[in-house]
Amino acid sequence: MKKCVLMIAAIGFGSLALAQTPAPAIPPIATDVTAEEITKFIDALPKDRVSDRPIKNVEVTGDYRVGVYGVFRPKDLPGRSNLHQVDTTEIYYMMSGYATLVTGGTMTDAKQENANWVQGTAIEGGVSRRVVPGDVIIIPGHTPHWFSELETDLTYLIFRPDPDNRIPLTE
User: Fold this and answer.
1) What is the C-alpha to C-alpha distance for residues 153 and 133, in angstroms, rounded to an integer?
2) Tens digit of pLDDT for each residue in 92-118?
3) Do β-strands 106-108 and 111-114 pair in parallel, antiparallel, or remain unpaired?
């Protein structure tokens, strides 16, 4: 039994060693997005519409991109349900405001807006949760999502890891 456990452990650790990616020839550089930059950016967003704009999009090790977006969503414009038909995950970090976010389920009155985007009027049968400042919600690509109710205006960050290099770089 002891030999069997040791052999399984050796195979497991050997697999990990083989799975490691070699370091890039040119070492990557870290990217900062300061609290001051975020506040200034979000404060400058238009307040008469849903604004979802890139603060910074960069290439990272592993041949993919990561985007940091600032969003202002006015209380009077909750918006429609959305489905992004891409592998990009959206990670919401709620900065201010209170709302109900629905994910999953089935979109109602769904309409293909372009090759990668479907919009609808609502979602049936999804998971509903109240979001507040400090919450983080991870929405995988191909997942319907919708703010069904806005109690206040919202500000939040969206982090978008993009394995398909679709998002344009900023600088």
Assistant:
1) 12
2) 999 999 999 999 999 999 999 999 999
3) unpaired
> How far is residue 40's CA from residue 12's CA, in Å, rounded to a whole number?
48
Burial of 68 (0-12, 13-18, 19+ CB in 10 A): buried
CA 149 from centre of chain: 20
Strand-pairing partners, residue 82, are 119, 145
Instruction: Name the CA dihedral angle for 83, 86, 89, 94, rounded to a multiple of 10 degrees.
Output: -40
Q: What is the pLDDT of residue 128?
A: 98
Say how many residues make up the chain.
171
The count of other CB atoms within 10 Å of the CB of residue 43 is 11
pLDDT tens by residue, 121-158: 999 999 999 999 999 999 999 999 999 999 999 999 99
Radius of gyration of the chain (CA): 20
